[in-house]
Design goal:
Strand content: 25-35%
Distance between the termini: 28 Å
Order of helices and strands: EEEH
Structural class: alpha+beta
Number of strands: 3
Length: 66
């Protein structure tokens, strides 16, 4: 039986505060964090973008439940 190890490389959060959206991305290996404001129009398109990625690349196994 073959086992595999998963390594978290990046962690991302999309935060909404008072109608303003911020994307926060942590580079786990380097220990750095970057953030950038995100327009509402891009936030609204995120489900479509993820569906397109899934359609092209195939479904991803769930890493963990939230």
């Amino acid at each position: 039986m073959e086992t595999s190890t998963q390594t978290l490389l990046f962690a991302a959060e999309l935060i909404e505060e008072n109608g303003t959206y911020t994307l926060v991305v942590e580079d786990v290996a380097k220990g750095t964090v970057q953030s950038t404001p995100v327009p509402r129009a891009m936030v609204d398109k995120l489900p479509v973008f993820l569906a397109t990625l899934t359609a092209k690349l195939g479904p991803v196994r769930q890493r963990r439940g939230r």
